[in-house]
Amino acid sequence: MNQELVLLRLKDAPTASSAGVSLERWDGTAWHSVAIDAEFAGAFTDEQDVPPGTVGHESHREEAGSETESAAAAENRGAPLEFEPGMQAVLLLPGSWVWNGLETVPRAARRQSSAVGYIVEERLAEDVEDLHFTCDPVAGDLCSIMAISQNKLDALHAQIMRLQWPVTVAIPEYRLLSALGGEHGIWLDGARAHLWQGSGIGMTVDRSLLLPIAESLFGADEETSEEIIEASAGSDESAPIAVLGPVETLEQGGLSQLGRVEAQTGQAETYLLEQYSPAATGNLLSGAYQVVLGTAEGPWWRVPAIAVAACFVAQLVFFVGAGMYYKVQAGHAEDAAQQLFQEIFPGVRPQADLRRQITGFLNQSRGGGSDFARQLQQLSSVWNGGKSSELKLQSLRFDGTRGELVLQLRAADLAQLDSVVNKLSNSQFKAELLAANELEEGVSGRIRLR
Question: Membrane-crossing residues (predicted)?
Fold first, then answer.
């Protein structure tokens, strides 16, 4: 038995006058009652189950008053239900709650509960809109269809979510026999009998009706369709029938007429649970009723959400840090630009937009911008052709109105200054030395180019 798989069973009221349900847990040897609260016990009762005008309607109204007392008494019966971390539970529902049959269903309609319902509508006693359907493929387009009241399934799903039980699979009792792997099976469970045909049909009946129902279910007759016979994997008279639970001599004799009877020893529940997989088909908690397990740390999406949030915060911190770094670098670049502007244009106050201010200076006079560019080009050619290591530009000022460029240079001697003046002079511009001052090391001179 899988130690992490817990088997629970929901039992319906034993008589029509009883209210609510009870819950049992399999411990490997026997079923034990589980304590449930009044809300769970009364969640599956519905006064509409007894139609108005029937003989039992008035008595049902009188019994409804005692429903709360019956549900409250259920709280004091049985041991509390506790789950260890990592456990997963399979809940068996009363077989009388679930209708089961075989029908051909196109692939496109299998995932649409209402579409499946309308295909088998003529075989149902309830309105399709009030039922939830599951469709499990058997062979080709042949499917095993189950139907259960939406009211009951709504109540079950709400209670599972309220109590935070790790119940992810809910199947009718007879569906547990599908663990036999396509074989016919009968589970004798006290006064009830659960039957399963390997092709995918099951039901729960009173044990007194076992033989006639088994003959109808397992005996292939002339009206049985070829598709169902093929899906049954040998549903003829020689097909083996696995019988679990204590069988009486009369029952065994009657079943042997239908096929070879293979009686399984030991506890039926333990044997079936060892063979059953929670991933098997037939889970009624599907679609909108699917239950997703959480963990001790929270739901499954908690860790990915934390990882995404951490990445977002890290990226945000990186962007903020990069923004602050580039802001500081931009401040240093702005200071350096203003210092250079004051060297080039002494006495002029730099504005916020230095680029626009310099462009304005270049356009102050007609042709001033082009003169300044050509003068700088001439200065660059002289600078690159001479000993630039001995020359140092101390200041540069351009007068756009006059088209004059005034340089303050520092040279090794006066001869070097004269050489620069001669090189700057050409057919287009004229350079002249305005002033020269001797320094402790070298000479400083002012040159005008126009």
Answer: 300-326
pLDDT of residue 413: 85
- Do residues 199 and 225 touch, judged by C-beta distance below 8 A? no
3-state secondary structure at position 73: helix
Mean pLDDT of 433-437: 84
The predicted model gives 259-282 an average pLDDT of 84
The DSSP code sequence of 208-273 is GGHHHHHHHHHS--TTS-HHHHHHTTS-STT--EEEES---HHHHHHHHTTS-EEEEPS-HHHHHH
User: Per-residue pLDDT tens for 353-406?
Assistant: 777 777 776 666 445 556 777 777 777 777 776 655 677 888 888 776 677 888
Q: Which of 362, 448, 376 is nearest to 408 (CA)?
A: 448
Q: What are the start-end ranges of the H helices in 132-209? A: 150-163
Q: Is residue 60 over pLDDT 60? A: no
CA distance 401 to 364: 7
Determine the Cα–Cα distance for residues 138 and 130; give it in Å rounded to an integer.
25
What is the residue whose two structure tokens read 């589980």?
34
If 0-12 CB within 10 Å is exposed, 13-18 middle and 19+ buried, where does residue 374 land? middle
Pair of tokens at residue 364? 């102050």
Q: Which two tokens stand for residue 4?
A: 């992490």
Q: What is the per-residue DSSP string for 345-381?
A: STT----S-HHHHHHHHHTSSTTHHHHHHHHHHHHHH
**How many Å is the Cα radius of gyration of the chain?**
47
The DSSP symbol for 74 reads H
Q: What is the pLDDT of residues 206-234, one digit of tens each?
A: 999 999 999 888 875 444 445 555 555 44
- Checking if the pLDDT of 245 tops 70, the result is yes
